[in-house]
Design a protein that fits this description.
Layout: E1 9-15, H1 20-28, E2 36-43, H2 49-56, E3 61-63, H3 71-84, E4 89-92, H4 101-106, E5 111-115, H5 127-133, E6 138-145, E7 155-162, H6 169-198
Parallel strand pairs: 1-2, 1-4, 2-3, 4-5
Antiparallel strand pairs: 5-6, 6-7
Helix pairs in contact: 1-6, 5-6
The protein binds 5-O-phosphono-beta-D-ribofuranosylamine.
Length: 199
């Protein structure tokens, strides 16, 4: 009997902005051997560029502004949308909200984030400027599991990016972004394959 390909894992991508990482995840999912498909792109900003791109690509979207809502209520609505889309994993891709502990707990091991630094260095914001100011030889990008503490979960993959003389935060960010787009689809795919084998 010929082996049938395993079903693709359904992914919800949470975004707040431009969505270039969402696009990288989406286009990598077009390969025949990709182990995942994007089931939903969801955002706390109805005007996010990422949503318009997802719609143009025929991907289901969900948008709900967090303004005037409690964190719990907003998270619950985002989670409900992810579950209705049949999501098995969540990929945070420039999602600028801190999730409630209950949400994080329910998706433990199944929620990833991309962060523009070589973690554990430079959690939080302004990572490139801080790496340059510290005189680091490299900046970079990490993909990690999401835990309750900000940018502190297990690192699943990293790419280091050299800091050149005269580098600015913007010029470094531009090259790190190229690395981000290579890293995220690959780490997500590896994570899905390895969690499948662990079942
Ligand atoms: C990326 O730099 C990512 O590392 C960080 O937020 C940014 C999102 O950019 N978490 P984009 O919206 O994917 O272009």
């Amino acid at each position: 009997m010929p082996e049938t390909a395993p079903q693709r894992a359904r992914i919800a991508v949470f975004v707040s902005g431009r969505g270039s990482n969402m696009a990288a995840l989406l286009y990598a999912s077009r390969f025949d051997d990709a182990p995942y498909e994007i089931a939903l792109v969801a955002s706390n900003d109805p005007g996010a560029e990422a949503l318009a791109l997802a719609e143009a690509e025929g991907i289901a979207t969900f948008a709900l502004s967090h303004k005037g809502m409690t964190r719990e209520a907003h998270d619950a609505a985002m989670e409900d949308a992810a579950r209705k889309a049949g999501a098995e994993h969540i990929a945070l891709a420039g999602y600028m909200r801190i999730l409630t502990p209950g949400f994080v707990k329910r998706w433990e091991g199944r929620m990833l984030n991309i962060h523009p630094s070589l973690l554990p260095k430079y959690t939080g914001l302004d990572t490139h400027a801080r790496a340059i100011a510290a005189g680091d030889s490299h900046g970079g990008v990490s993909v990690h599991l999401v835990t309750e503490d900000l940018d502190a979960g297990e690192v699943l993959g990293q790419i280091a990016v050299a800091i050149r003389p005269g580098e600015t935060a913007d010029s470094l960010a531009e090259r790190v972004r190229i690395a981000e787009h290579q890293l995220y689809p690959r780490v997500l795919a590896e994570h899905i394959r390895s969690t499948r084998h662990a079942d």
